[in-house]
């Protein structure tokens, strides 16, 4: 697995797929939708890891 790609639960995978389908229904290409959702997932994961790191530092 790629270094910066978080592992998703089945439910999270389903939510990501639904979000991709929503974006495609709005006229976005599949590639753009996948890239956007992947970036959202990575950003959320990075924020969560930063929050945990901040809490551990306290």
Automatic annotation (TrEMBL):
<dbReference type="Pfam" id="PF03701">
    <property type="entry name" value="UPF0181"/>
</dbReference>
<dbReference type="InterPro" id="IPR005371">
    <property type="entry name" value="UPF0181"/>
</dbReference>
<protein>
    <recommendedName>
        <fullName>UPF0181 protein NNL38_23980</fullName>
    </recommendedName>
</protein>
<comment type="similarity">
    <text>Belongs to the UPF0181 family.</text>
</comment>
